[in-house]
Write a structure and sequence with these properties.
349 residues, alpha/beta, TIM Barrel, Lyase, Ornithine Decarboxylase, Chain A, domain 1, 2 domains, eight-stranded mixed sheet, eight-stranded parallel sheet, 23% strand, binds pyridoxal-5'-phosphate
């Protein structure tokens, strides 16, 4: 039963496990790094990470270091944790204490990581990022040789281990991604010529990992698909299902509408009104309006206070998934999940 006050995001461990298994089966022999940024795509990073590690996932990826440090405490010493955003010196030091692999996308950051490794006495494991076209972060082709040389020099002095090379794809067109991969492979080859050994080479996130095996390196970074979030307007994914459903209870009934306890304050887009159907005990019904903490739904025969309405959830005859909901308002499934506030209570089963 949903809480009386607001909606409940109900996450399902069995589904998450099945998704992870489907991704692993698809990518092997590449290793899976499960990305759990944005609090595990809204479902809860600690929970998702524990499930993943128990399912044999060897790598977890987070955007920021504080989350990675928190996950180290949650999942213990075994799994590798990768944090990739450029961070403060204090955060670098905390990452080194917690044995977190660092994504390094500039020479300036590399030099600060080396200083912190020297200061703390912990050997930093770093993955150097080559910019392959997104121009967000990453060493340019011109900076690459210098970056590799600085890293190898620090490795010889015992401060770091350069263990990987990585980049991120635009996933806008196959041709662009092919060109990005060519730049990536050239950078890897160049680093090896300079003396680097790079066991971890990673380039792809969910969509490219799934659809384009030739782009996978030795490691793939997959978030959305592990959580069952299909790409907007993307293909169905065999073996992958939404790992959470969003439900809300009927608060009252007014004429031909029922009022349920979920709204824009919980993070739901108000543009959903009249664009989607929700799952009710009486079948699929139109969502009529979205208020701050209440939504109105076309009534059904025999509706009563406390009935559970499924805003999205598999096989419950409303919207199947966060992605189908998102498609109705021109966004992506991740956005629907990640915008849900703590007002949408998380429940696990
Ligand atoms: C978000 C992110 C991923 C995972 O992307 P999905 O499409 O959710 O699988 C991988 N790598 C980086 C750098 C990211 O920011």
């Amino acid at each position: 039963m949903a809480g009386l006050n607001g909606p409940v995001l109900r996450a399902d461990e069995a589904v998450l496990r099945a998704n992870i298994a489907a991704v692993q089966a698809r990518v092997t022999p590449a290793e899976l790094m499960m990305v759990v940024k944005d609090d595990g795509y809204g479902l809860g990073a600690d929970w998702a990470s524990r499930v993943a590690v128990d399912a044999g996932v060897g790598w977890l990826g987070t955007y920021d270091i504080p989350t990675a440090v928190q996950l180290r405490a949650a999942v213990g010493p075994q799994p590798r944790l990768f944090a990739w955003v450029t961070s403060s010196d204090e955060e670098i030091a905390a990452a080194l204490h917690a044995h977190i692999d660092l994504g390094v996308g500039s020479v300036e950051y590399l030099e600060r990581v080396i200083v912190q490794a020297d200061a703390t006495g912990f050997r930093a494991r770093i993955h150097l990022k080559i910019d392959t076209g997104l121009h967000r972060n990453g060493l340019s082709a011109e900076e690459w040789d210098d970056g590799v040389r600085i890293a190898l020099d620090a490795q010889h002095r015992g401060m770091i281990d350069l263990v990987g090379a990585w980049s991120h794809l635009a996933e806008a067109s196959d041709a662009e991604d092919d060109a990005a991969q060519a730049r990536f492979l050239a950078a890897v080859a160049r680093a090896e010529t300079l003396g680097a050994r790079l066991p971890y080479q990673h380039l792809t996130a969910s969509a490219a990992t799934w659809e384009r095996p030739e782009l996978r390196g030795t490691l793939v970074r997959v978030g959305a698909f592990c959580f069952g979030v299909r790409s907007a307007d993307g293909p169905d994914l065999p073996g992958i299902a939404p790992a959470a459903e969003l439900v809300a209870q009927v608060r009252r009934i007014e004429d031909d509408e029922v009022v349920i306890g979920a709204g824009s304050f919980d993070g739901l887009p108000s543009t959903l009104a009249r664009r989607v159907r929700v799952g009710t005990p009486g079948g699929a019904r139109e969502l009529r309006s979205v208020g701050i903490d209440e939504m109105r739904v076309e009534a059904w025969q025999g509706a009563s206070v406390g009935d559970e309405v499924v805003v999205f959830g598999r096989g419950r005859c409303g919207e199947e998934s966060p992605t189908t909901l998102a498609e109705a308002v021109g966004t992506v499934g991740e956005e629907i999940l990640c915008r849900l506030t703590p007002g949408a209570r998380r429940e696990y089963r």
